[in-house]
Amino acid sequence: MQSFRKNLAWGFSGQVIAKACIFAYHFTLPHLLGREGYGVFALQFALGAMLLQPLLELGFAQLVPKWVGRGHAEVFGMALRYQLLSGGAWILIFCGIGWLTEAPLLLSALLSVHFLANSMQQTGFGVLRGLEDLRLESVLLPIQNLLALAWVLWALQQGWMEPWVGAAGLAGSRLLGLGFLLGRLRRLEPSAENSTPLSWNRLLREAVALGVVLLMIQLYFRIDTAMLGWLRGESEVALYSAAYTILEGTFFIPALVVASLIGSLSREEDFSRSFSKGFRVLSLSGVGIGLTVGALAPWAFREFYPDSFVESGALLRLLSPTIALVFWGYLTTQALVALDQQRAYLGITALAVILNVSLNLLWIPEHGSHGAAWSTILTELCIPVCCWVQIQRVRSQ
C-alpha cells in the first residue's frame, strides 16, 4: 500500500505537469497551423498512432513490467532488440502510406522518429514499472513535454505554419529523453532474480498477441479520425481531433493507477485486493472528471480557441461520458494481461474494432464528427463490460 501511494504521488505530480504541457502544445497547434493545416497534422499523427506505434511497441510496454516484476530483467534487452531491428521496415511502410495520402514527406519522417523513440522509451519505463518505481518516468516526461512546448511557441513567434513543425517538437524531445533514459537504465537495470530463463519464443508469442491487441486498440481509438478524413475531409478531422485531444489528456490517470498496480495485479495472491483498490480510485476520478469536462467544454472552446473550432465544444460535451468508460477499460484490460488472458483480450478488442468501424460507416457519412463521437461512446462501453465478464469467469475457476 505504501508503494502504491508513493508511486501515485510521484506519477500524479509528474503527469499533471506533462499533460498540461502537451495540452498547451496541442492547443497552440490550431493557432499556428490553422484548421486545414492542423487537420493534415492530426490525420497523419492518428495514422502513426494507429499503425506504426503498435507495430513498433508490439505489446512489450505491457510485458516488460509483468516479467520484470516476476524477476526476469533480461526481457528489456530482448524487447529493445526487436524494436531496433524492425523499426526501419515499419517506418518505410508508414512513410509509404503518407505518400499515398499526400502527406508531406518531412511530416511523415519526423513522426516516424517520434513513434520509434516513444515506443523504446515506453519499454524502458516498463522496467521501472515492474520494479514499482515511477520516479524517473514522472520527472522525465514533464521535461520532454516542456521542451516540445518551448519549440512550438518559438515556431509560432517565427511564423512557421507548416504541419512538420508540430512533428518536429515531438520527435526532438522524445529523442533527448530516450537517450537520458537508456543511460540511466544501464546503471539501474537489476540482475535477473528468477533462475528459470525466459524463452524468447514464449515472449514473442505473448508480444505478438498483445501487439495485435494494441493495433486493434489504436484502431478503435483512432479509426474515427481516419474515417472522418476519408468520408468527410480534413476540416472535419480538425474539429474532432481538437475535442478528442482534451479527452485523451485525462487518460494518464488510469494509465498511472494501473502502472502503480501492475506488479501486484500480476501476483495471484494480491490480485483481488489490487483490482478493488484500482476500481474505487478510477470510478471516483472517472465520473468526476467526466462531469466536469462535459460542463465546461462549450465555454472553453468559445473562449480560447479560434472561431472555426467552436463546434468542437459540443463534440467534447458529447464525448465526456467516455472518460469513465475508458478509465474502467484501462483497469479491466490490464487485469486480463496480468491474468495471462491475452487471447481473451485480443478477442474483446477485435469485437470493439468491428463494432466501431461498423458504426462509423453507418453514422459518419450523415452525421460527421457527431456520428464518430457516438460510435466511440458505444465502443468504449463494450470494452470494460466484456473484460469484466472474462475476469469473473477466470477467477471463478
How does this model look, in words?
The protein has 14 helices and no strands. The protein is mainly α and 397 residues long. The chain is globular.
Keywords:
mainly alpha; single chain; 397 residues; 14 helices
The value of Rg in angstroms is 20 Å
Shape: globular
Kindly report the average pLDDT value: 86
Detail the poorly predicted runs. none
- Sketch the major β-sheet: none
Strand content: under 5%
Task: Please report the number of helical segments.
Answer: 14
Task: Provide the structure class.
Answer: mainly alpha
Q: What fraction, in percent, of the residue positions are helical?
A: over 70%
Total strands: 0
What is the first-to-last residue Cα distance?
Answer: 27 Å
SSE pattern:
HHHHHHHHHHHHHH
SSE arrangement:
Elements (H helix, E strand, L loop, with lengths): L1 H56 L2 H10 L5 H26 L4 H26 L4 H24 L5 H25 L11 H32 L2 H15 L3 H14 L5 H34 L6 H9 L2 H17 L3 H26 L1 H27 L2
Helix pairs in contact: 1-3, 1-4, 1-5, 1-7, 1-8, 1-9, 2-4, 3-4, 4-6, 5-6, 7-8, 7-13, 7-14, 8-11, 8-14, 9-10, 9-12, 10-11, 10-12, 12-14, 13-14
Give a brief description:
The chain contains 14 helices and no strands. It is an all-alpha fold and 397 residues long. The chain is globular, with a radius of gyration of 20 Å.
